[in-house]
Amino acid sequence: MKFSSIRALGGAALLAFYGTVGAVQAEGADPTVLRVALEPAFPPYCFVDDGRVMGFDKDLLDAIAQELGLKVQYTTMSFDDIIPSVMKGDYDLGASAFIINAERLEKVECTDHYTTTGLSLVISDFYAGTVNNMRDADGKTICVEKSTLSERFARTLKKSTIKSYPGDEVNEAFNRGDCQITINERLFQSYNLKVGNIQDGILLPEVYSPHQVAFVLQKGNIELTDKINQGLQTIRKNGTYDRIFDSWFTVDVRTREVENKE
């Protein structure tokens, strides 16, 4: 099942499906279990396929937990709900390609970054040769994911009509012709073109707003944040990180600095 199919079940059905996973409150929680909240529709970072949580974030956390002697419980929810749930202590950690920024650091702890990426445009075949960069896109209708850097970045295009959607509904909107341009995280765009979740699209080469991606934890939980960082450092050193990265991505962004285009 493609991740778009499970997403179509809606938040209530997803929560019911995963109702037995990670629903324990912080008080009395098993200290040997890492309770993780993630969005089920942001491949290749995290998604659900045939009822199984999958993705780069999930594989990294499994490897980190193994180094720390922890088990992991995953709960899926909307992107907007992850940080509030982590702030309340309902979950130990949030994972869904969270960007490290000053606003976020006021609410939660961020681990060391585990990859560097940026935003890129996917255009329809209709715009091939006429839209080659962000400047060309100004004045066009653009689809973005709600409450993300992509949306904030798109709204700097004063002449464009911006349509916001939850999760992978951005892809569905593009596929049915609601817009001919999407702006999203580059590796997300590349993966979805590869597996056919974005149809008849072209990924433009330029990268905008380069940023670092991390896991988020409850503000003040320095002990667990340090442990996660320790586990991440270990899997970087022993080669596990590289093996996981190469299993999901074809573009190497581990050390490459992406250029910020205007």
Provide tags for this entry.
single chain; 262 residues; D-Maltodextrin-Binding Protein, domain 2; 2 domains; ten-stranded mixed beta sheet; three-stranded antiparallel beta sheet; 11 helices; 35% helix; elongated; disordered C terminus
What characterizes the major β-sheet?
10 strands, mixed
* Content-based structural category: alpha/beta
**Assembly status:** single chain
The count of strands amounts to 13
Relative helix content:
25-40%
Outline the low-pLDDT stretches.
Answer: 1-25, 253-262
Q: Please, how many helices?
A: 11
CATH superfamily of the largest domain: Periplasmic binding protein-like II
> What CATH first level of the largest domain would be assigned?
Alpha Beta
Instruction: Summarize the helix and strand pattern as letters.
Output: HHEEEEHEHEHEEHEHEHEHEEHH
What would the average pLDDT be, to the nearest integer?
Answer: 86
Which radius of gyration do the C-alpha atoms yield?
A: 18 Å
What does this structure look like?
The chain is an alpha/beta fold. It folds into two domains: 3-115 and 212-248, Periplasmic binding protein-like II (D-Maltodextrin-Binding Protein, domain 2, 3-Layer(aba) Sandwich), CATH 3.40.190.10; 117-209, Periplasmic binding protein-like II (D-Maltodextrin-Binding Protein, domain 2, 3-Layer(aba) Sandwich), CATH 3.40.190.10. It is built from eleven helices and 13 strands. The strands form two sheets. Strands 1, 5, 6, 7, 8, 9, 10, 11, 12 and 13 form a ten-stranded mixed β-sheet that branches. A three-stranded antiparallel β-sheet has the order 2-3-4. Helix 7 (149-154) links the parallel strand 9 (141-145) and strand 10 (161-165). Helix 3 (56-68) crosses helix 10 (222-237) and helix 3 runs antiparallel to helix 11. The chain is elongated and about 55 Å long. The model is unreliable at 1-25 and 253-262 (pLDDT under 50).
